[in-house]
Prior knowledge:
This protein has one helix and eleven strands, in the order ββββββαβββββ. It has one helix spanning 70-77, and strands at 10-14, 20-27, 31-37, 40-46, 55-61, 65-66, 89-99, 105-113, 116-131, 137-148, 167-181. It has an eight-stranded antiparallel beta barrel with strand order 1-4-5-7-8-9-10-11.
Amino acid sequence: MTTNLNDLTGTWTLDDTHTRLGFVTRHAMITKVRGSFNDFTGTVTVPEAGISGAEAKVTINATSIDTRNADRDGHLKSNDFFDMETYPELTFVSTSIAANGDGGVDVTGDLTIKGNTKSITIPFDYEGTATDPFGNLRAGFEGKTVIERKDFDLTWNAALETGGVLVSEKVTLEIEVSAIKTA
């Protein structure tokens, strides 16, 4: 197992069966709704120069949204939220990746949702590497950041009789990565 981020040279592919691209937001001001996107592809390329020259790209099939409630998922797919017929993909393309001094990396890049692109930074903890039983070298990372729905034109909401709104403006992105080194 390597603990040095600069030892991760090469191309890494997100393992979609062991990676979670999740989110959580407040519902009715008192509870949380969690969900994820289950269909995506992603790669991270780390050059010989080290992690500071790395590049990451993730493409998400928007229709793969899953909040464990078919009615809610249908509403999220509609024009009220993601308008998935018009915008079938969400994308993230890194603009910089740098070691953060805590043993992890800060990944800054352009997140595009519903045709709106905003720069975000996701601090990731580096969990290390391991060779799985099939001989694949894996690297693990966990990160999260908060975005504002309105920045991506996700503005639908409903006022509550008790005050407040049905859906929080803030959404926490929760990302757990298992990446396999490409031979």
